[in-house]
Amino acid sequence: MIKLKFCGGVAGSVTGACYLIETNNTKILVDCGMFQGSRFSEFSNSDPFPFNPKDVSAVIVTHAHIDHSGRLPKLVRDGFGGKLYGTEPTLDFAHTLLNDSEHVIKEEAKREGLQPFYTLKDVAKTFELTNPKKYNEEVVVSEDIRFILRNAGHILGSSIVELFVKNSKGKEIKIVFSGDLGNYPAPVIGQTEFIDDADYVLVESAYGDRIHETTKKRKDILEDVIEETINKGGVLMIPAFATERTQELLYELNELVENGRIARVPIFLDSPLAIKITEIYKRHESYFDKKTKHLIETGDDIFNFPGLKFTSDTEESKAIVRHEGAKIIIAGSGMSNGGRIVHHEINYLPDPKNTLLIIGYQVRGSLGRRLLDGEKEVRILGRKVLVRAKIINIGGYSAHADQKQLLNWLSPMRHTAKRIFVVQGEEKAAAALSQHIKDELAAESEAPIMNQEVFLES
């Protein structure tokens, strides 16, 4: 028997990725992510798992983003004591992100009269279970399950999981989990790997109904947005995810500044977490692509350049408002649901000469999504804020593959795949991708629902 259960990250929900694979002898998880976005979805993080964590032998983490790793400490608190697998950057990033998220979870729980679903002690216990693995390394979990990690090109160390599972007759089937696939080509992290064959595939669909700008076009748009805002004497706010989006943005700003393509103005990286993550990046240069390694070898500090200021402590952050005139502020959180960006949005959204540049996916229900959808009045930290600033979105800076890239990635597996499960996308995006898989790849495709169980082999 081989059974697959969808315990999160199903169609209709981009977040909360969690997939249980069960044989007669072994149970493992691929990802154990946090639900994000609306208050209802975030309350779900405290719900019991639809399985017994004590029975799970291992968890394979595709990458560190909270929607794929955020419930790991809860899993450990509830009894999981098996092995935690992922690449070294993934496990290092996840440790930092989960420690950082703990105080937010504690504050939200207190506000709602609930118990936090994990503590720092749970995080520490979780990372006593880690087993870092390299790309292309075969890992044996049990007598009937083994796996190999491939580069997903999403963030540094992100992985596609090739899972090989034996059924009761000893026949091995191959299940491929896309994790989050990158918007390639992307700087620093290298190319998304293609998989030649699979019996079953789980593919993300965050941008299953959209096509991104090219990487060249997105840099041109970034340059234009900066120049327009600076010429007006305005403030450019960029809500950025601490992992990957910030580092990719710094990489491209470095090129624009050093080549004289934009005027010299103060650029503030106002995110203690992003600063920590950038330091972790520097420790894992072996995962950088060849071009980035070459730049570093020639003496280019790709994450630092004239005008860039790191504001780690609170007083430095508060002082940004006293820098009059044009400036650029990069701050978390990426969906404007918290972090220092919300304070800047309170200050600068009411002024029409300012710009809010959205460069990452915005979950339905988040403040970032509401701003992107055109709301002209929002509440931030209990205050009414009028939105007069220009709101611009550059889809090409998304870390997610678009519809065309997803179909291209699936194409080599279309001849062998018995079923393709479309996950991690809102209803419209998942439905669009599923239909394109049927029409263009002539493959069987479906969008599973929460807690759906599928018997893959007897």
Describe the 3D structure.
There is one protein chain. With 458 residues, this protein is of the alpha/beta class. It has helices spanning 39-43, 66-69, 72-77, 88-112, 120-126, 215-231, 245-258, 272-283, 290-297, 314-319, 341-348, 367-372, 403-410, 427-441; strands at 2-6, 19-23, 27-30, 58-60, 83-86, 130-132, 138-142, 145-151, 159-166, 172-177, 200-204, 235-239, 267-270, 308-310, 327-331, 355-358, 377-380, 383-386, 390-393, 419-423, 445-446, 453-457. A hairpin with a 3-residue loop joins strand 2 and strand 3. It is built from 14 helices and 22 strands. A 7-stranded mixed β-sheet has the order 6-5-4-3-2-1-22. The chain has a 7-stranded mixed β-sheet with strand order 7-8-9-10-11-20-21, with helices on one face. Strands 14-13-15-12-16-19 form a 6-stranded parallel β-sheet, sandwiched between helices. 31% of the residues lie in helices and 22% in strands. Helix 4 (88-112) runs antiparallel to helix 8 (272-283) and helix 13 (403-410) crosses helix 14. The radius of gyration is 22 Å and the shape is globular. The chain folds into 2 domains: 2-210 and 399-457, Metallo-beta-lactamase, Chain A, CATH 3.60.15.10; 215-397, Rossmann fold (3-Layer(aba) Sandwich), CATH 3.40.50.
